Amino acid sequence: AGTQTRLASVLPPPPKRSEGEQLSLLEGNEVPCSDSVGHGTFLIVAYSAVIAVGLIGNLCLVCVIVQQKEMRNVTNIFIANLSCSDILMSLVCMPITVIYTLMDRWILGEVLCKASPFVQCASVTVSILSLAWIALERHQLIINPTGWKPAASHAYLAVALTWAVACFISLPFLSFTVLTNEPFRNLSLPFNPFADHLACIEHWPSDEQRLTYTTFLLLFQYCLPLCLIMACYFRIFLRLQRRKDMVERAKEGSRATSHRRVSVMLACLVVAFAACWLPLTVFNALYDWDHEKIPVCYHNFIFSLCHLTAMASTCTNPIAYGFLNSNFQKEVKALLYRCSCSGHEKDKYESFPLSTVSTEISKASLRSGGGCPEEL
């Protein structure tokens, strides 16, 4: 049987000590690893900041897209879907990782033991597939502007299919994630101070099945989607660069600039996603093939840093798409304005075009810069 960690892991794998190391530790010949208060404080503060930014930012993004009917185009539907998966990771995966890492044992019960890696695997899959759908939609819009264009109904169908596929490929976590004291009872000693501790680990029938599934997830969740996305954006940038005809530029310059700006922004989301998940990917590979390179005493802390970097991807969506976008900031202010003025008569709104979306801004808010309009 084998245990494994991978992109979908929300839980640090048990450190691999040799029997000699464990014997020396338990017999008192070796100074045990001491938990650093500084490390724990850093993890709590860092995870709390990422959770707050990811949760609030993505909630604002989803609310704006849901509230504004004109914003429910294909790209924004996938953006909202990406935000939903990020919200799920912020609510479930990150808090559990902090608790498990700091406690160094599992205290949350069997249900959460199985559910946590399942949720993260599904969320990661939804995120990368949403980015792939966005890239394909942009590719069709720019490379073949007069051809077939997906409608919002097609986007909703793709979102449903994405979640179905993500849940399906995550099912092995429900079967092979177990709650056990195995990592703490590897030695037959008269006294084992860790015998009653539990760990939440993957326990596979064979190493071959484990490695097959691991390889599949690495390809399906990371390598293949990123190759497809990079190919799409590479063709998009080539097409935008080749528009050198001055007449065409004069006629479609504004549209080309809009396409270029939006494509750059979306490509940055992909680069940020790939960069955020790279450290955890490297850690997983190192753990599988050469675990002795990972210092035992800093094993959980290193995993947490890699996992924290991966979780930081939940913040890139609202930051890149939203808070660096002045139009989105206006939408959030208009949303807060409407909430604060819910007791007054409905405002009249005027539509303004965004890059690929339209938005509604309150005339009263634009005139007064805030404050509810007086009732007539």
TrEMBL record:
Please provide the record's keywords in A-Z order: Cell membrane, Disulfide bond, G-protein coupled receptor, Glycoprotein, Lipoprotein, Membrane, Palmitate, Receptor, Transducer, Transmembrane, Transmembrane helix
Where is this gene product found? Cell membrane
Q: Which InterPro entries match?
A: GPCR_Rhodpsn, GPCR_Rhodpsn_7TM, NPY4_rcpt, NPY_rcpt
Give TM segment ranges.
44-66, 78-103, 115-136, 156-179, 216-238, 259-280, 300-324
Q: How does it sit in the membrane?
A: Multi-pass membrane protein
Pfam family name, one: 7tm_1
GO molecular-function annotation terms? neuropeptide binding; pancreatic polypeptide receptor activity
Does the keyword Transmembrane helix feature in the UniProt annotation?
yes
Sequence ranges assigned to domain G-protein coupled receptors family 1 profile in this UniProt record: 57-321
* GO cellular component terms, A-Z: neuron projection; plasma membrane
Domain of life of the native organism: Eukaryota
> PANTHER family in the record, alphabetically?
NEUROPEPTIDE Y RECEPTOR, NEUROPEPTIDE Y RECEPTOR TYPE 4-RELATED
Q: Which family does it belong to?
A: Belongs to the G-protein coupled receptor 1 family.
Protein name in UniProt: G-protein coupled receptors family 1 profile domain-containing protein
* Organism name: Varanus komodoensis
Name of the gene encoding the protein in the UniProt record = LOC123027020
